Amino acid sequence: MQKIRSIDLMMEKIHIKKMTVGVIGLGYVGLPLAMELVEAGYKVVGIDIDSQKINSLSEGKSHILDITDSQVNNAIQSEQFQVTSDFQVLGDLDVVSICVPTPLNKNQEPDISYLTYTAEKIERYLDNPLLIILESTTYPGSTREIFAERLNQAGKHMDEDYFLCFSPERVDPGNSKFQTKSIPKVIGGLTPASAQLAEKLYASVLDEVVVVSSLETAEMSKLLENTFRSINIAFVNEMALMCERMGLDIWETIDAAATKPFGFMPFYPGPGVGGHCIPLDPMYLHWKGKQSKFFNKFIETAQEINMNMPYRVVDKIQDALNIQGKSLNEAKVLLVGVAYKSDINDVRESPALDVYEILKERGTVISVLDPFVPSFKDRDDQVVPVIQSQSCAFEQYDCVVILTKHTKLDYNGLLESSKAIVDMQHVYKDIQANHIYRIGGGVLHEPTNLTLTT
Question: What pLDDT was estimated at residue 451?
């Protein structure tokens, strides 16, 4: 009877929007989710171990570009949203969504320390029936191992004391078309009752919910999504290098192939892959496969190709400097764009960081320009200042390298003033000039129109 009472009580709370929902980890995943929950009418408690982040949010200030200060301030002022670093509040919650980091360690293996820390806190403060939803990317089986097994050993009973689901985050920072509310939400439950509760909760907040048969299926779906992207990006990166060798233009080739209305999806070359997902998720899958003595060669090869792309960028820079009779050592190079993708301030796993480190090791005098990023930390944990502007004195550099295609950049001024440009983002698609160097760009021609159409 207790099982029925717990489920019925929680279902009723969802129905009348009386659930108190906790969100652990208020980063690029957690804060947008918290705002959607508030918008849907739930009381939300945000939990984060970063005291600076908590202080900023409590003052109504957002650290995420996709979330405005006014959204946070309105949520705080309405008392529908509160933030804390004290995990004791877990005892007062009905639901907790876990959005903590799941990085790789130096050996490219999963670091689940944030997950185990969170599981310890939940076990310690679990007093009332609690729906636990893990959103952090992880390997198949980890939700069951880290949470269910721990709680069971502590004498907690599933479908009575706790309900457990995995629902992979699908956040794409800076994407104005697809945001948390409009992206279909996959849910896998430890039990049918767990999945039913999570489905009812998220269906009251988001546009579409997709329930799958198990925790592991939901976990695997996230890894499959991003491994697919990693492998295809690696493929086109290698094709770009092949096209260079053959004197062909990979960009024109992709555009031609993309005219086929079926059976082809365009991917584009670049300086590597960045963000929390694509560089990391495939390695979670690769690591888990090895546990079952399965070695995924596609993942290994893709990782090798993508992680070597920053070195190919440096090769291009050296080509541009050779024409000027200069070497990397003591050359003045400007890196344009350090964020891992366009129009965001997120530098996590950005290939630009690797380009910076390689150049630094070779004695290059490096400057960085990015209108969205004020600074970043290098491998020595030193703060590197960034020219946070749309333009600068491009002519003072021996080579300017476009690594991220931000819309807020003076590309015409860069084109007219720079001695040499390494264009890794195909910014100058319709311009052929001897001072522009591209990946997969084919044969350069004499200068034509030196004005970029915007």
Answer: 54
Backbone angles phi, psi at 56, to 5 degrees: -65, -45
Among the listed residues 243, 277, 392, 399, the single catalytic one is 277
Separation CA 341–CA 356 (nearest Å): 16
- DSSP β-bridge partners for residue 421: 400, 436
The string of DSSP letters for 266-335 reads -----S---SSSTTTHHHHHHHHHHHTT---HHHHHHHHHHHHHHHHHHHHHHHHHHTTT--STT-EEEE
Q: For this structure, is 277 an active site residue?
A: yes
Measured N-to-C along each axis, helices 69-77 and 30-39 cross at an angle, to the nearest 10 degrees, of 50
**What is the distance between the alpha carbons of residues 99 and 39, in angstroms, rounded to a whole number?**
19
pLDDT in tens, 118-154: 999 999 999 999 999 999 999 999 999 999 999 999 9
Q: Which residues contact 422 (CB under 8 A, 6 or more apart)?
A: 313, 316, 317, 320, 399, 400, 401, 402, 437, 438
